[in-house]
Amino acid sequence: MILCCGEALIDMLPAGDGFRPSPGGAVYNTALALGRLGVATGFLWPLSRDPFGAMLRAPLAEAGVDLTLAPDSPRPTPLAFVTLRDGEARYSFYDEGTAGRDLTAEALPALPDHLRALFIGGISLIPDGPARAIAALVGRARGRLVMLDPNIRPAMIPDLPAHRARILALAAQATVVKLSVEDIRALWPGSAPGTVAAGLLAQGPALVLLTEGAGGATAFRPRATLHRPAPRVAVADSIGAGDCFDAGFLASLAAQDLLTPQALADAPNSAIEAALDHGIRIAALSLSRPGCNPPWAHEVQP
Predict the structure, then answer these.
(1) Checking DSSP bridges between strand 176-180 and strand 207-211, what pairing results, if any?
(2) Mean pLDDT throughout 29-38?
(3) Fewest C-beta atoms under 10 Å: which of 113, 138, 197, 252?
(4) Mean pLDDT for the chain overall
(5) What tens digit of pLDDT does each residue of 91-127 get?
C-alpha cells in the first residue's frame, strides 16, 4: 500500500458569477488518482464530519482508497477559493482552526505492516503541528520509499526561510523529491534547477524530479539526467496536474516493483523514463478536464 499523508480540502472553483465546491488538496488529489489507477492506496488526514467532509470521503471510497487511518474531526473542512488566469490556477486558502489541525505527532496511528511507500507534501507542511506530525511519520517510515512534493504556495507561507529549512530536512529523509519550476523559483530564487537537484541529491534522495509543464519532466539521478517530453494537449485548467503526475509516477514504480529505496536506486534508466512517461500521461489527461478529475485505469492507454 502507498500511504498518502497530507491535506484534504474543498476547492471553490469559478462557476458563472460565483463558485462551486469540488474535493481537492494536493495530497488528496494524489491519493484519489492512485486509487483510480488501481494502486493499493491509503489516506491519512483528519476529515471533518461536516457535509464537505462527506464530499471528500465519497470519491476516495469510490476509488478504493483505504480511509481507516483518516479520523473524523469535529472541526470544519478547509476551503481554497480558486481563480483562473490564462488557465493557471491561483488559490486563496481558509485553513485556520480546520480539521487538518487535528493531526499531531501524539495522535499518529501505527503504520500498517503492508505499507510499501509514503507520499507527503503540499500545504500540510506549513502549519507547525501537522508538519511536526508528518516529520514524525517520515521517521517511522525509515527504510521504506518516501516521496516528497512540497507544492509551494508562497502566499500561505509566513516564513519562507524557515519553510525552506523544513523542506530540506524532509528531503534529506526522502527517496524521491519532486519539484516544479515554480517550487524552485519560490524556494531557491535565481538558482538553476540542475544546481538545486545536485544539492538535494547530495543530501540522500535517490531521485529528484522536475516538472516543467509543457516542457515535460526531468529526473536527476546521481549519475544520470533523464528528460521526457510532454504531449500537446488542449488545457482546460492546471488544477491538480502536478498531483496527478505524482500518482502516475508512483503507479509506474509500483507496477515495476520499484517501491523500495534500494530497488529504485538500482533501477535502470529505462525504468525511470517509463515512470516519467506515465506520470506525464496521467497529468496530461487531468489537464484536459476541468478541475482535478484524475483518469481511471481503463482510460489510460497502455
Answers:
(1) parallel
(2) 98
(3) 113
(4) 94
(5) 788 888 999 999 999 989 999 999 999 999 999 999 9
Element (H, E) at 146: strand 145-149
Asked if 125 contacts 100 with a C-beta cutoff of 8 angstroms, the reply is: no
Residues linked to residue 85 through DSSP beta bridges, in sequence order: 88
Cα angle 229, 24, 40; round to 5 = 70
C-beta pairs of 229-235 under 8 Å, 24+ apart in sequence? 229/280, 230/280, 230/283, 230/284, 231/280, 231/281, 231/284, 233/284, 233/287, 233/288, 234/288, 235/87, 235/287, 235/288
- pTM exceeds cut of 0.90: yes
Q: What is the pLDDT of residues 161-178, one digit of tens each?
A: 999 999 999 999 999 999
- Domains of the chain: which residue ranges? 2-295
